[in-house]
Structures are given as structure tokens and as C-alpha cells.
Design a protein that fits this description.
two-stranded antiparallel ribbon, Beta-Lactamase, 2 domains, 11 helices
Length: 327
């Protein structure tokens, strides 16, 4: 027959265990709420900026999931790019994967992209991509020292936006609770990306409306005068398109006339003044526009036959490929 004090000791032990579990759950909930609060605060203090949001997400994800590293991978077509990194990842790894690359089919990122499902690798030494010598997997294991990692997709209406991956230097699988937590961070990242997109679209729309209003104001103040109207149009176009300079040409059916210039280098200004009205030179963007009667967009006109390429110092514009010759 059990003694009464033995039953009391067992009840007390059960209460202690339940209290410890409750405290652990409360601590986890507080950590998650704090992390969410920090991310929301960054979003509100950095409207339209994704980098600080990504950094806050990764920092909290790696801390709460007890990981060594975190990487935010964004989709760019069928390629991925490391948009944000957290932890003491080797500089060589960051440099190599901070630019777009196409993951091989056997890699975890490719599996995330094809299945839209999480991928959990408990031991990278048995990871097929590493065993087969895939450069990305080899770099992860031998350069970054990764032993265990987990990746979840970032989905917007079943469209893959990117992935969040967390990594450990030791072989220790992630728990179900940590998996759920990382998926919540991935959902927050998608919301931040969508909010930024909508905010930028709103800003662009307001800029365009403001520019249109300014041009209409110039037209109403200068009836019958084209020069101030052309100048206002070009100034707004250069500003909104974040261009270095711009030229507005008028075509009279035979010749092009440079009617307005904004921010144009002096050498090119003097060239236009000396040349005056002209026929478009074959091979130049203006000649292509004349032939096609459509917008011409040149990402790199360095060494091209146009005067802008030779005298304007425009060179390569692939970083901001918005330079356009317009009719």
C-alpha cells in the first residue's frame, strides 16, 4: 500500500514538471513575440527598404532556432541571389553567392524551387549534392563549415519569391517547433516584400502625377510656347527615370532638332550646337527609333556610334538600364 506522503511527493513532482513546461512555453512565446515586434518596428521605421527588414528577420531566426548562420535567398528569374546574410559566414562564400546563380537540380534550393516545400538536411556529409561534388554544396560544407541546415520557401500565392535557410556548424537536426518558427519568418518576409512593392508603386504613381501636373502648369502659363514645355517634360523624365542627363528631339519629317537638354555634359552640348538639325546616323538608337517608331532601350552603348556614347560619358548603363531614346 502506497504511503500518503509518497503520493504527495509524486503530485509535487508532477506540478514542478508542469510548471517548468509552462515556463518554457511562456519563454518561447515571449521570444517569438519580441522577435515579431522587432521586425515590425524595422518595417515601420524603414518604409520601402528591404535590407534592414531582411537583416532583422535573419538575426531573429538564427537566434531563436539556435543556428550558426542565416541566408535570405531571393529569386531572380530561374536564379537565386543571396540578398542578406547573418552570422560569421566566410567572406568568400558571401562574395560567391551574393550574385545571381542557378542551383543544380540536386541542391536543396533547387528542390525548394521545384516542390515549394521545406528541405531539411540533417547531415551535409551525406547530402547527395556534396557527395557528387556540386560546387554550391562543397562551398557550403568546406568553406562555410555547414553540417546541418533547413530551408523554407517564401511563397506569394504559390509563386516562389525566395527562400530562407538557416545553418548549423554541428550535426543537430532542427525541431518541429523551429521549423514552424522559420516558416513564420518566411511569411513575414513575403509580406515585407509585397508591402515594399506596393509602396514603391504608390511613390512612382505620385511622382508621375506630380510631373504631369507640373507640365500642365507650364503649358497653361506659356500658351503657344514650346520651349518651356519641352524643358519641363525633359526635366521630369530625367528625374523620374533617375537618369544622368537627357535630350528631347523634335522630328520635322526629315530632320531631328535638339529642342531641350538637361544635365548634358558640355562637350555634348557644344556638339549639338555645332551640328544643329540632322538626320539620324544608321546604327544609333535614334535611327532605330525612326525605323521602328517605338521605344528603344539600350543597356550598354559604350563604344557605340551615337554622340551620347562618345561625348556624354554614359558608357555602360546596365546597373540602371533606364536610358531611353524617346520620340
Amino acid at each position: 500500500m502506497r504511503k500518503p506522503h509518497a503520493d504527495l511527493e509524486q503530485q509535487l513532482e508532477n506540478c514542478r514538471r508542469d510548471l517548468a513546461e509552462a515556463r518554457e512555453h511562456l519563454s518561447d512565446a515571449l521570444e517569438q513575440q519580441t522577435a515579431t515586434s522587432e521586425v515590425l518596428q524595422v518595417i515601420s521605421s524603414s518604409p520601402g527598404e528591404l535590407e534592414p527588414v531582411f537583416q532583422a528577420l535573419l538575426e531573429n531566426a538564427t537566434k531563436l532556432c539556435e543556428a550558426s548562420y542565416g541566408v535570405m535567398w531571393l529569386c531572380e528569374g530561374d536564379a537565386f541571389r543571396g540578398a542578406a546574410f547573418h552570422g560569421d559566414l566566410p567572406a568568400a562564400f558571401i562574395e560567391q553567392y551574393g550574385t545571381p546563380f542557378r542551383p543544380s537540380p540536386e541542391t536543396a534550393l533547387a528542390r525548394v524551387a521545384s516542390t515549394h516545400m521545406p528541405v531539411n538536411i540533417a547531415d551535409t556529409h551525406e547530402y547527395r549534392a556534396y557527395v557528387d561534388g556540386n560546387p554550391f554544396a562543397v562551398a557550403a560544407v568546406e568553406i562555410a563549415g555547414i553540417r546541418t541546415f533547413f530551408a523554407v520557401p517564401m511563397l506569394k500565392e504559390n509563386e516562389l519569391v525566395g527562400a530562407i535557410a538557416i545553418y548549423r556548424r554541428e550535426m543537430r537536426p532542427f525541431t518541429d517547433k523551429q521549423v514552424d518558427l522559420l516558416q513564420n519568418f518566411a511569411a513575414q518576409a513575403v509580406i515585407a516584400i509585397e508591402n515594399t512593392r506596393l509602396l514603391n508603386e504608390l511613390r512612382e504613381s505620385l511622382q508621375q502625377q506630380t510631373a504631369t501636373s507640373e507640365v500642365l502648369g507650364v503649358i497653361s502659363r506659356s500658351p503657344g510656347e514650346l520651349e518651356p514645355v519641352f524643358q519641363a517634360m525633359l526635366e521630369n523624365a530625367v528625374r523620374i527615370c533617375e537618369a544622368k542627363f537627357g535630350v528631347l528631339y523634335r522630328y520635322d519629317g526629315k530632320l531631328f532638332h535638339p529642342e531641350a537638354l538637361v544635365g548634358v555634359p558640355q562637350a555634348l552640348v557644344e556638339f549639338h550646337q555645332k551640328r544643329g538639325a540632322f538626320q539620324a546616323v544608321p546604327g544609333t538608337p535614334l535611327h532605330q527609333l525612326w525605323q521602328m517608331r517605338n521605344v528603344v532601350h539600350t543597356a550598354d552603348d559604350a563604344g557605340g556610334p551615337s554622340a551620347s556614347a562618345r561625348l556624354g560619358g554614359r558608357g555602360r548603363t546596365s546597373q540602371y538600364p533606364c536610358s531611353r531614346t524617346m520620340r
